[in-house]
Amino acid sequence: MDRKKLMVGNWKMNANHLEAIQMVQKLSYRLQPDDYDRVEVVVTPPFTALRSVQTVIEADRLLLRLGAQNSFWENEGAFTGEVSPTMLAKLGVSYVILGHSERRTHFGETDEMVNRRVRAVMTAGMSPVICVGETLEQREGGSTEQVVLGQVRGGLASLSSGLGSINIAYEPVWAIGTGHNAAPDDAGSVCELIRNELESSHGVDVAESVRILYGGSVNAGNIKGFMAKRHVDGALVGGASLDPDGFASVIRYWL
After folding, report:
1. For residue 19, how many other CB atoms are within 10 A of its CB?
2. DSSP code at position 74
3. Which of 134, 171, 197, 202 is catalytic?
4. Is 100 annotated in the active site?
5. Looking at 100, 197, 202, 231, which residue is catalytic?
6. Distance between CA atoms of 248 and 255, rounded to whole angstroms?
7. How far apart are CA 204 and CA 77, in angstroms?
8. What pLDDT, in 10s, does the model give residues 98-143?
């Protein structure tokens, strides 16, 4: 099945709303209409910049898609500091990153919490980008497969419909922000494991429709190697997405 590639720029806790506007405008200048035929491009600014970026995308009729870096699982209530999926949907958000390794590590997010977020995001009509990946200790202990597939199963628990809108990002924890990345062959093998798990648990149609991304120190210099792998359908891009020139080069990986 020919899956349209997906490139998600995760800006993390960077860029105020004015900087975010400039970054989106500069990125749009560097992309051509044909690029969007090959790749779906998503930018995920901090919550404080979502409205500003939404306004630019809509006013300038940009082909970029808007994403968010997280979502709570309730639509409203006494949850000070949280942002609900319905709030995000009203801002025109299409994609939401969930279970990022930094949130699992720094904020104690569990597979159960990620699953609750996934179900809430899907109910609100948005597409989750579920992050999975092992630590260096787990990798060296030979438990990559066990950890990654356990997180996939946990994130998809109790889901039986609408799975085609889901995206899964394999982002080994040891490669996040370290300058190190999995070798393309290793990344491709783990993405294939995820695809096989989806086929086993949810059938061929779901396995073929879910896009599996690689994330972990992705940049213009190494993206071609990852994208050459059959089961890699795109990338979750961190630091490199903060530079419009660098992110544009990642998006246009075939050149």
Report:
1. 15
2. S
3. 171
4. yes
5. 100
6. 11
7. 39
8. 999 999 999 999 999 999 999 999 999 999 999 999 998 999 999 9
